[in-house]
Amino acid sequence: MTMARATGRSTAPAEQPVSKSQVIMNEMVLPNDANALGNVLGGHVMHLMDMCAAMAAMRHCRRVVVTASVDQLSFHHPVKVGELMSLKSSVNYTDRTSMEVGIRVEAEHPLTGERRHTSSAYFTFVALDEQGRPTPVPKVAPQSEVEQRRFRAARKRRAARLALREEIARADGETG
Ligand SMILES: CC(C)(COP(=O)(O)OP(=O)(O)OC[C@H]1O[C@@H](n2cnc3c(N)ncnc32)[C@H](O)[C@@H]1OP(=O)(O)O)[C@@H](O)C(=O)NCCC(=O)NCCS
User: Under CATH, which architecture does the 10-175 domain have?
Assistant: First the structure.
């Protein structure tokens, strides 16, 4: 795909099911990506999460997207050199030009197949038009009970983020 095609008019319909945005990415952890303990570096995991989440956002809106913010990024367990990492992402929620993408990372032992949940986060992406300005995205249509629960939770996170921003701006105004 050329960049000219990528920055052209969006081909997405006005509304999309969550399933249209789903991405699964698999990686093997190599020594170059690890610290002296043989655990994968947090920054490497964050890079992979950003890529996997961005692909879900692009699949949803068929636009160039930029990462606007990341919420609740957590590392529950380390991932070891030689393990497989599986990243799954999909769009949880959309507003006018922004989309929240949820992402979950699991580590898998290559010999036993045993898996554990190692990281998760919520990325907000903004879709850009041909001039690099924020542009409207299709609405996401959650269908299953899980998708509807994620949609409601994402809407609350957005409301909380905006409320916090207003509260800080108000407090800054009061203190000069
Ligand atoms: C994200 C960005 C495009 C927003 O531009 P802006 O001029 O502030 O645009 P607006 O104020 O019109 O907001 C556009 C949307 O972005 C959302 N947004 C802006 N800043 C945000 C933030 N920090 N977190 C989450 N959403 C944000 C707004 O809520 C709005 O969403 P909505 O249309 O769904 O309501 C701009 O800040 C930007 O380009 N940031 C850098 C992105 C980047 O380079 N990312 C890679 C990091 S290295």
Answer: Roll (3.10)
* Sequence spans of domains, the chain: 10-175
Does pLDDT of 2 surpass 90?
no
66 lines ligand 1 (CB under 6 A): yes
pLDDT bucket at 176, cuts 50 / 70 / 90: low
Residue among 85, 99, 1, 9 at smallest CA distance from 41: 85
CA-closest candidate to residue 136, choices 4, 13, 6:
13
Query: Nearest residue CA, atom 12 of ligand 1?
Result: 134
C-alpha 99/C-alpha 171 separation (Å) is: 28
Pocket test for ligand 1, best of 126, 161, 164 (most atoms within 8 A of CB): 126
pLDDT in tens, 22-59: 999 999 999 999 999 999 999 999 999 999 999 999 99
CB-ligand 1 contact for 76 (6 Å cutoff): no
**pLDDT at residue 13, rounded to an integer:** 87
The finding on whether 16 has its CB within 6 A of some atom of ligand 1 is no
